[in-house]
Amino acid sequence: MPEDSRDDDSNPEDEFRDMLRDFLAGNTNIDPAKLAGAAGLPNDPEMVAQLIAQLQNALQNSGDGINWGLALEQAKGIAGRGTVVSLPAERSALEQAFHVASLWLDEVTSISELTEAPRLMSRQEWVTATMPVWTQLAEPVAGSIANSLTQVLNESTFEGVPSEEVGEMIQGASRLMRNVGGTLFAMQLGQVVGQLSSEVVSGGDIGIPLLDDQHAAILPQNVLGFSTGLDIPVDQVQLYLAVRELAHARLFRHAKWLRLQLLTSITEFAKGIRIDTSRLEELASDFDPNNPEELREAMTSGALIPPKTDDQLAALGRLETMLALIEGWVDVVTAEATKRLPSSAAIAETVRRRRASGGPAESAFATLVGLELRPRRLREAAAMWQAVTDAVGNDARDELWSHPDLVPTGEDIDDPAALVARITGGAPGPDDVDQAIEDLLNDDTTDRPHED
Predict the structure, then answer these.
(1) To 5 degrees, how large is the angle CA 342–CA 348–CA 349?
(2) CA of 37: how far to CAs of 12, 190, 323, in Å?
(3) Contact, 217 vs 120, CB < 8 A?
(4) Count of CB atoms within 10 A of residue 183's CB?
(5) What burial class does residue 176 get, using C-beta atoms within 10 Å of its C-beta: 0-12 exposed, 13-18 middle, 19+ buried?
(6) CA distances (Å), 34 to each of 156, 287, 338, 402, in order?
(7) Chain centroid to CA 53: how far?
(8) What are the CB-based long-range contacts (under 8 Å, 24+) for 396-403?
(9) Which range (62-71, 116-125, 156-165) has the least confidence?
(10) What is the CB neighbour count within 10 angstroms for residue 24?
């Protein structure tokens, strides 16, 4: 049927399939507002124009990878909105705060200072510096969505199409749909990271090492926003956050294995995420181009990601334990280093509550890639580190980060006394060990079937 003779009262399913066929054929004369809605973007003329341009590029792109440059471009555009240039006096105060913070940390930890000077970053600079990590975390899910989208949309689009037309349509369609799906996902990620740039106050604020080793950073504009409404002198807030950021960066410099292990664990977890193709098929067949909110909601709410498997839940538990151990150590060291600050405890509680709840953009990232980065056992981990500090001192405490095999476990968080006993050599003696072995053998004998 010629395109201009389609019935105006055709059902939404046929309209959507027609739209996809046109799109696959290279016709991008589609209502940009509908595409923007499907991409989860506001109907802003500038964003719509950018979306159309990027989708046209995706159509013409012969490559088979996701163009993460789109995410960076999108995020920088959002980060640049409402940017306030920090005053020289404010920057000088933060630089001085970093200097004092370094001296205070030297008093409470044997972990040496950084070799690179801390930085004061704008939101756009933070986006540029951290985007490589965000894309590393998001890539497995983006690839899975692109693959599923290719399969489902090809099947739903070409169903019932005359065979002589199919050959022309499906030629290169898989690669094209991967590019289009990847473009939409990359722009979604850019939106999330762009919004995050207005929430974070420092390089280690999210808990994971977003910056390279040896680097620490603070975002002056966001520190000012953080301190608003706290009824605490801003210089105390600046100094506390500087100590916390330096402690976080020093830990990752000292434990050189930690950054790679943490990011590898997160990536391995993300690789196990699969897309609910049945839900995607349902969306593809029932999609109403005049009401794209359902598709946008599915992408941004995590509805396409099925419940975690038992193996994923176990892996997530290990990740949460490590994040809690990292931030618990940072909390204890920061508290000890900032004892001179009258409002240290109040600022610390604000930071803990903020990390426990997370901001809107952090929640959006969690639903987009199916992974939360919140240390659920932060308070318990901090209590464990405090118990270790009280029992064996700062040096022995920090020595636990010298090798992966020495780092405390979830069981140690549950039972700090056992960890302290192990560190101090107060482990069970030979008699206790012999008794334990005897008990184990007795249990084994009891459970073993009798032989004739």
Answers:
(1) 110
(2) 16, 16, 36
(3) yes
(4) 24
(5) buried
(6) 19, 11, 53, 54
(7) 28
(8) 396/423, 398/109, 398/110, 398/111, 398/254, 401/111, 401/251, 401/254, 401/255, 401/258, 401/329, 402/254, 402/255, 403/257
(9) 156-165
(10) 22
- The SS3 assignment for 8 reads coil
Residue with tokens 């604000």: 350
Is residue 100 packed enough to be buried (19+ CB in 10 Å), middle (13-18) or exposed (0-12)?
middle
Which alpha helices (H) appear in 159-276, and where do they start and end? 163-170, 173-196, 220-227, 234-254, 256-271
Please answer whether residues 143 and 274 qualify as being in contact, where contact means their C-beta atoms are separated by less than 8 angstroms: no
Eight-class DSSP state of 217: E
Q: How far is residue 119 CA from its own chain's centroid?
A: 22
Residues 6+ apart with CB under 8 A from 425: none
**Alpha carbon distance 140, 68 (integer Å):** 13
Cβ pair 315, 269 in contact under 8 A: yes
Give the residue ranges of DSSP H helices in 4-122: 12-24, 32-38, 45-60, 69-79, 88-108
pLDDT in tens, 204-247: 998 888 987 678 999 999 998 898 888 899 999 999 999 999 99
DSSP 63-81: --S--THHHHHHHHHHHTT
Pick from 219, 207, 212: nearest CA to 248? 207
Q: Could you tell me the two tokens for 127? A: 């986006």
**Averaged pLDDT of the chain:** 76
